[in-house]
Amino acid sequence: MFGKGDIRIVVPSHGIIIIDHKNGSGVMVEPDDSQLKMYGYMGFESTKEYLGEIPVIEMWISQPRKPHKDGPHRSVYMTGEELTNWWLDTLLPALAAAREENALLKTGEWCRFCPAKMDCPATKGEVDDVKIVGNVDTLSNEEIGRLMAKRAVIVKFLEAINAEGNARAKKGEMIPGFKLVHQKGNRAWKDSMNEKDENGVEKKVTFAEAVVARFGKEAYEPQVLKSPPQIEKLVEGSRFVSKWAYTPQTGLTLAPDSDKRAAVKPAIEQFMDDMAAQETKGDDSK
Ligand code: SF4
To answer: What is the pLDDT of residues 36-90, one digit of tens each?
Structure first.
């Protein structure tokens, strides 16, 4: 349990409006996320004497940097009773289970923000359990699936190690095998310089003046059309994008069973199914 709701508006004799802003673009958050429901329930519990008989709790998420088919601001509505039932029947039992001595430790995407991930036996177990293999083509399908399922946890663990190593080195500690260096940077333009004109008089010239004077139109990039997520941020952009944008098929990839997308059959299996269906159809028509 964590965080603070950004905005809570109590509407007397009606309900509460909870608004939470997410500036990140890494993890998609939906308005019925348990974090929002916690804010909703806590808000309801602390102000219910001001609300109507059937208080409505509106929970809004605003995540402008993460494109979503329903737009950046999305909401769900729950009654105070529904939220109370969720709190009592789902959240409190889970909290109690987490406090038990040998509580279940289940790694996943949620470990990303967990302050215990560096010491968590489950995370360490996932990492320790990975054997370095010579040839991946000697692994069984079961081993591939097991290792792919650990990928996210291992990557997050290594990112946390990297951040910790950097922080220690910047404080002056030695990390064997590594040294502090300047990060690579890209060249940037100066804003302006003093240059002499044809009469030898020094004057301030801006970069834009200098580059256009020297290269003319070639100093400019060609105009580039914005992407659907960029157009979506413009006024009336969502409607335009829903009319003009489509998602091209970019090939198949493996996703965990828990992924919301429907499973796709590889082309050969689909072909065999189509052939079998055609044969059945032929038999039926005899
Ligand atoms: S790092 Fe460990 S304790 Fe933290 S969320 Fe993941 S499994 Fe749970």
So the answer is: 999 999 999 999 888 878 899 999 999 998 888 889 999 999 999 999 999 999 9
The verdict on 88 and 12 lying in the same domain is yes
Report whether residue 117 contacts ligand 1, using a CB cutoff of 6 Å: yes
User: Which residue's structure tokens are 């950046």?
Assistant: 72
> Does position 286 have pLDDT exceeding 60, yes or no?
no
Query: From the CA of 19, how far away is ligand 1's center (Å)?
Result: 27
Q: Is the CB of 116 under 6 A from ligand 1?
A: yes
User: Residue 175 to residues 155, 166, 167, 172, 208: CA-CA distances in angstroms?
Assistant: 20, 9, 11, 9, 45
For residue 111, with 0-12 CB atoms within 10 Å meaning exposed, 13-18 middle and 19 or more buried, which class applies? Answer: buried
34 is a domain residue: yes
The protein residue whose alpha carbon is closest to atom 6 in ligand 1 is 111
Q: What residue numbers bound the domain in which 88 lies? A: 7-98
Say if 262 falls within a structural domain: no
Q: Do residues 14 and 91 both lie within one domain?
A: yes
Q: How many structural domains are present in the chain? A: 3
Atom number of ligand 1 nearest to Cα 108: 6
Ligand 1 touching residue 122 (CB < 6 A): yes
Residue 253: inside a domain: no
